[in-house]
Design goal:
The chain has 172 residues and is mainly alpha-helical. It contains six helices and four strands; from the N terminus they run βαββαβαααα. The chain has two domains: 82 residues; 80 residues, no CATH class. The strands form two sheets. Strands 1-4 form a two-stranded antiparallel sheet.
Length: 172
């Protein structure tokens, strides 16, 4: 039984087991490699009169990834009963998730709301949640940074960034 599986284990000993992380990672890389190999075969993996076909190099990269991830998968399964180390404890994992999850939401909102509104929301979230700042400062900084980025890219560099309904409503 792993240290993190024991009910009497201290909170610092709980977290993700290294064997599961390695097994899942190797499996995901193997799945990606098989997808790469399959799609490369659709494009052609041989040598044409004018040089390599479109899938020539991706096919070989997929083969290398499949071999390496398959080897790691087999190694992990072979040493399954002896691998009991923790990959990450619960506390640091929560810290990573506290940054990663809001960033995923931010990226997911960009196609619908543009870049400026989600950026202001992300800054406001981190200032309030992680920094503990009050609402007046949060509103001033998050809106100010979004406005500054808008002026910098849209007006000064003349480089349009993704816009959402708010910018279209304002006429930009």
């Amino acid at each position: 039984m792993d240290a993190q599986d024991r009910p009497d284990a201290p909170a610092s000993a709980r977290g993700w087991s290294q064997r599961w992380v390695e097994l899942i990672t190797a499996g995901l890389v193997l799945a990606f490699a098989l997808l790469l190999i399959t799609d490369s075969q659709r494009l052609g993996t041989g040598w044409a009169d004018d040089g390599p076909q479109s899938g020539y190099f991706p096919f070989r990269i997929g083969l290398g990834l499949a071999l390496c991830s398959g080897w790691l998968l087999l190694q992990q399964l072979r040493r399954w009963s002896t691998a009991t180390e923790l990959f990450v404890e619960a506390g640091p994992l929560r810290d990573v998730a506290a940054v990663f999850l809001p960033t995923v939401v931010y990226v997911a909102l960009i196609p619908w709301l543009g870049i400026y509104v989600p950026s202001a929301l992300l800054i406001a979230w981190f200032m309030r949640r992680q920094g503990g700042y009050g609402w007046p400062r949060v509103a001033l900084v998050s809106a100010g940074v979004a406005l500054l980025v808008f002026l910098l890219f849209e007006r000064w560099f003349v480089l349009p960034l993704p816009k959402g309904p708010l910018e279209h409503w304002l006429g930009f």
